[in-house]
Design brief:
The chain is α+β, with helices and mostly antiparallel strands. Helix content is 15%, strand content 30%. The protein folds into three domains: 43 residues, no CATH class; 200 residues, Glucose Permease (Domain IIA) (Distorted Sandwich); 153 residues, no CATH class. Strands 1, 2, 4, 5, 6, 8, 10 and 11 form an eight-stranded antiparallel sheet that branches. An eight-stranded antiparallel beta barrel has the order 12-13-14-15-16-17-18-19. Strand 14 and strand 15 form a beta hairpin. It is globular and about 60 Å long.
Length: 439
């Protein structure tokens, strides 16, 4: 009995002691969580007010909450870690694909189309959307003159399942900037980004969350240029070796060719505006090969593609890609989110070694970084604005802009360091500034 009594006393001490510690820890967690339940900036304050406000102003709340991990945002837009499918398809019907019977921009209005797979600035990994640019506009210039805007059109009948105002830091114009998702079936959808003016029909529901049907050929808005992509949930790209890495942009792994679903003769007319001449004409974004250098990488413990903001740097600072040029895939591109604090893309001197051939057995690899340009079929350098058929991308081997060291450590990790403004001869080994990247 004495032994039993002593064991009972020991149990009570352990149980109540642990309970007190657990309660204290839970209290601290609650206090920290409650700090986040104050407001959505100047939009609203408190849980009840913000829930009511966001019912009527969903696009404003989404724009504020996107990329933020705060309590009110998590309550209003609860995350679902198991969802690697479409973010929302409420109101859709059926599955499978449909044919597109209308061009997203009138053929006569199009100056250039650029396919998926480019790497530009903060788009460090190959881009999952293409670009339509109107004849009235110079890409990269401002979008304040509405006389440069042209009609943007639905390619097929579908349900508009999402209209979002772009966050201020990504907005292209003070006129307005919207992202529109059209589900043509529950598994097949198109995404438009940087639509500067909505049609009256869409403007009326922009802040309500209401779903609405649009017809093939219907004008959905206006812009001088926009991003366009097509996604099929029944297809998952094989070149993303860890699909969960992209849970922040779940449509990405289901990106399909942006030309393939247009009927004849529209498909040919659009391809005639496409500056990429190499196959596949629609581009490619998935390059990962297990145990090889090629593909997308992210700084260890930064959340994969979603990343984390660092000061004034966007989520892409932690991104890295060893891939191939979006207009001429014979050119190797090193694309990094942090080159002296900026996101930049480079070719490599000699255009070798090919990252798809680099594995653990190759040890430390040196690449000298260079700028690059494009030659058109006429032999001239492309001005990057007007339509031209791109024949070749080439590096400026005489213009060394830095050196990188990289080593494949295992199937899903590499060690990487960039040395801006250094030649290969000036770089001997990794320093304490090197980082581990994963996928």
């Amino acid at each position: 009995m004495k032994v039993v009594f002593m064991l009972f006393i020991l149990f009570c001490v352990l149980f109540f002691g642990c309970t007190q510690v657990e309660n204290k820890n839970n209290l601290n967690i609650v206090k920290e969580y409650n700090k986040e339940l104050v407001s959505l900036d100047n939009l609203c304050s408190g849980e009840m007010e913000c829930k009511e406000f966001c019912k009527e102003n969903i696009s404003k709340c989404e724009a504020y909450c996107r990329g933020k991990h705060i309590g009110l945002c998590r309550m209003i837009f609860p995350p679902n870690s198991d969802d690697i499918g479409p973010q929302e398809n409420t109101g859709c019907t059926g599955t499978g694909i449909v044919n597109f019977t209308s061009s997203p921009m009138r053929i006569e209005d199009i100056e250039t189309i650029q396919p998926i797979g480019l790497m530009i600035g903060g788009h460090v990994t190959p881009i999952d959307h293409g670009y339509y640019n109107a004849r009235t506009w110079t890409p990269g210039s401002n979008r304040e003159d509405t006389t440069e805007f042209v009609d943007i059109i639905a390619p097929a009948k579908g349900v508009v399942t999402r209209i979002q105002s772009m966050p201020k830091e990504y907005s292209s114009s003070s006129v307005g900037d919207y992202r529109i998702v059209i589900h043509h079936t529950c598994s097949f959808y198109t995404i438009y980004i940087h639509i500067n003016q909505l049609s009256e029909k869409l403007q009326a529901i922009a802040d309500t969350g209401e779903k609405i049907t649009v017809e093939a050929g219907e004008i959905i808005g206006k812009a001088p240029g926009f991003d366009f992509s097509v996604h099929n949930e029944e297809i998952t790209l094989p070149g993303f070796s860890v699909p969960e890495t992209y849970i922040g942009e779940p449509w990405k792994i289901h990106t399909v060719d942006m030309f393939d679903y247009f009927i004849s003769p529209i498909r040919k007319q659009l391809l005639d505006k496409n500056i990429r001449q190499k196959e596949p004409r629609g581009g490619k974004i998935d390059y990962d090969i297990g145990g090889k250098l090629v593909g997308n990488w992210f700084v260890e413990n930064t959340g994969g593609y979603s990343g984390t903001k660092r000061g004034e740097h966007g989520y892409w600072w932690s991104h890295l890609a060893f891939a191939y040029d979006g207009l001429d895939p014979s050119l190797i591109i090193v694309s990094m989110g942090d080159y002296n604090g900026e996101a930049k893309q480079f070719a490599v001197k000699g255009n070798s070694p090919d990252p798809k051939d680099i594995g653990i057995e190759n040890g430390i690899i040196k690449y000298e970084l260079t700028s690059y340009n494009y030659l058109t079929e006429s032999g001239a350098e492309w001005n990057r604005h007007k339509f031209a058929k791109i024949k070749k991308a080439y590096p400026y081997d005489q213009n060394i802009m830095g050196t990188v060291l990289v080593q494949v450590l295992d199937n899903r990790k590499i060690k990487f360091e960039v040395f801006p403004d250094k030649t290969a001869n000036e770089v001997k080994e990794f320093t304490e500034k090197s980082k581990i990247y994963e996928r």
